[in-house]
Amino acid sequence: MKPELLPTIIADRLRQPELRLLLAGLDIGSDDELAEPFILTGAGRLMLGRPILHSAEGRLFHLRHALELGWLATVATPSLAGLSAARCAALAVALDSEGGTGTSLPAWVAPVASQTVPDFTILGLIWTRLARHQPAATDAVLSQEDYARLADAWTIIGPTEWLMEQGGDARLATDPFTGLNGYGCSHRPRPWAVTFASSTASSSSERGYLGAEAARRRMIQTSFRQPAVQAVTGEAERVRQALAMHFALPPQTAVVLAASGTDSELIALALAAAADDRPLTNILLAPEETGSGVPLAARGRHFAIDTARGAAVPKGDTVAGFRDDTSLCAIAVRQADGGVRPPAAVDAECVAAVEAAIAAGRRPVLHILDVSKTGLRAPSLACAGALAHRHGAAMDVIVDACQTRLNPGTVRDYIERGWIVQITGSKFFTGPPFSGALLAPPAVAARLAARTLPEGLALYCGRGDWPTGQPGLDRLSPAGNHGLVMRWQAALAEMQAFADVTGTRRRAVLHRFVGHVERCIAQTPGLIAVNHRPAAHDAPDWDTADTIRSFAILDPLADGGERPTTGRASRYLDLAASRKVYVWLNADLSPALAGLVAPADERVLRQRCHIGQPVAVAVGGHPAAALRVSAGARLVSGEPSLAHLEPEERLVRELSDVTLLFRKLSLILMHFDHLTAVNPLPSYA
Q: What is the pLDDT of residues 31-72, one digit of tens each?
């Protein structure tokens, strides 16, 4: 039966994006006489009963349980399938903002959502309750063999949206009150939100979610036959092969998966240190326009209070095995007044820093920023190339391409030069946050044949994150990062869709988008463009165009308002105030501004709009913060929820969403003080 033929309350729930995607291949019916919430009547056939049709209590759990059992029953024994399906459903309910308190989760099934596997007796008792959903297997018992499989695979059995939260840090966790993570986005599809946040992080699309869902099913199914660690490392190898193919990397390039760009900085530093015994001088471009923890990682220090592998660490302390004498040389790309420095001046400072390190008997590690949070590139390719040619094996070059606004040919060129490249799938390509990787040229990866990685890296990565057969990993545990693998599979789905679009179409879409954003910034009172540059319609390819547009906000009360201006440090909203605007854009503001706006603007206030987080900058010498509206891969390949529209219609829809976003921003500035007092929270839906 089609979902829309089910009772309205069930059909509406099944239209929830992640549930709708799980319906593929299932046949669902309903029976008002059935006393059970649901039963599995055959392969892929489910019958919903009276409890789920007429009672809200436990409905979300039972629906998700049914959908998960629909596929698990085809790949596992009845008890293994039933308990795994119940665990997936329980974890999904815990993430749902409607069920964040746990009130919709039946108490008897709560143990399956625990971090560690319950003992055999408890799971056996739970199975006796679950068996009734599989009438053909009511006599089946939980065997010791199946329990052992469950215990081994416990951490990778869960719903896709939960698994994608694992293997990062606290910013990935879903807030039960908002349904969003620390980046203001969701691992569940959120197609109703206007999203131009690819310079920071994006919610999963249906396309990305399906890519991760396919990986989840492969891992879980494999774990029922092999050790779970093999299931994860096998999927990680699929990711590495896909990345090598996408970027057409030279043979023997090492693709190392890393939870974030900052994690990859630690790995890059370890590879640089493996070249020889000289102390390192890490030359970092515009650290304020990279990840906030990068300056610490660039010196081999813990950059947060926890790691992607869940270890608590002392932020700022040296990671075990890294040298204490690593120095950091930070080179600004902006002038004191906030303007962009002349490229020649940045190049000259980079040359001086490299030469000084060489003269002092140190090994320079020069970073190329391609590109920064606000779209800046530095130093010039000519400068970095000349330095690398002059000093050869005496230095390393690391390309910070974590925005990954690059063509495969550009990345391959960097690798062929012998340079290390840091990428992510979570910025331009709109995959989930914490999808990083480091690409190491063969000669760089070969350094580990004679040296081992610092022991402290075991807190950040495992052998499963590295290519099979890579030497020097003795101090790492065998395990890979299953959450990272899932996030990368979501990103890879977006990367493939983008690759399928012709270069001409990419350039045309991005040029129109950037031009429209620039016009909206110019036409919105109170906004000042940061790094304003003409749209590169004549750029040789899309990756040489500027696809991040930044703007600062004039303080709504700085001139002529109620707040006194005497002694004020700036005419612009600072980082904290700009972050409030960023959050309010992502919230339904209609309750907060009820009766204060025209009826025509109420729809605008309800629309959730997600853009790039603010970055501290200066404008004309005044402290300010730059908010960012960015083009992402989905803009070009097509937001899946708009697949029913022709390409031109989709683009027009996206441009109209940009207009709506800036209209909402105008309303926020008009009512800034009122919203400050109310401080609305964002929400998933």
A: 999 999 999 999 999 999 999 998 888 898 999 999 999 999
Q: Are residues 381 and 520 in the same domain?
A: no
Sheet with 609-619, side-by-side order of all strands:
194-196, 609-619, 622-630, 548-553, 527-530
What is the pLDDT confidence band of residue 216, given thresholds at 50, 70 and 90? very high
Residue 606 buriedness (CB in 10 A; 0-12 / 13-18 / 19+) = middle
Alpha-carbon distance 367 to 384, whole Å? 9
pLDDT in tens, 313-365: 999 999 999 999 999 999 999 998 999 999 999 999 999 999 999 999 999 99
**What confidence tier does 107 reach under pLDDT thresholds 50, 70, 90?**
confident
Q: Is 23 a domain residue? A: yes
Is 623 found in the same domain as 485?
no
Torsion on CA atoms 83, 85, 86, 89, rounded to nearest 10: 160
Contact criterion met (CB below 8 Å) for 48 and 6: yes
Same-domain pairing of 277 and 312: yes
For residues 522 and 516, what is the distance between their CA atoms, to the nearest angstrom?
A: 10
Q: Are residues 426 and 535 in the same domain?
A: no
Residue 173 lies in a domain: no
- Which of 461, 477, 496 is a domain's end point? 496
Q: Do residues 325 and 358 both lie within one domain? A: yes
Domains contained in the chain, number: 3
Tens of pLDDT, residues 586-604: 999 999 999 999 999 999 9
Locate 250 and state its tokens.
């030279």
Distance CA 280, CA 454 (A): 15
Question: Could you tell me the residue range of the domain that residue 63 belongs to?
Answer: 1-158
Per the domain annotation, does 222 fall within a domain? no
Structural tokens at position 637: 């390949």
565 pLDDT higher than 50: no
* Judgement on whether residues 492 and 509 belong to the same structural domain of the protein: no
More confident residue, 647 or 560: 647
Q: What percent of the chain has pLDDT over 70?
A: 95
What region does 664 belong to: left with phi over 0, alpha with psi -120 to 50, or beta? alpha
The 10s digit of each residue's pLDDT in 388-424 is 999 999 999 999 999 999 999 999 999 999 999 999 9
CATH number where 290 lies: 3.40.640.10
Beta partners for 48? 30, 38
CA distances in angstroms from 578 to 180, 459, 608, listed in the order given = 19, 35, 17
Residues 492 and 512 placed together within one structural domain of the fold = no
Query: What pLDDT was estimated at residue 545?
Result: 82
Residues 513 and 471 in one domain: no
- Let me know if residue 356 belongs to a domain: yes
Collapsed DSSP state (helix, strand, coil) of residue 57: coil
Domain boundary residue among 439, 467, 496?
Answer: 496
Helices (H), 154-303: 160-163, 206-223, 228-246, 261-273, 294-297
pTM over 0.85: yes
- Chain centre distance of CA 205: 12
Instruction: Report which residue type is found at 41.
Output: T
> What count of other Cβ atoms lies within 10 Å of the Cβ of residue 653?
12
Q: Mean pLDDT, the chain, as a whole number?
A: 93
Asked whether the beta carbons of 11 and 2 are under 8 A apart, the reply is: no
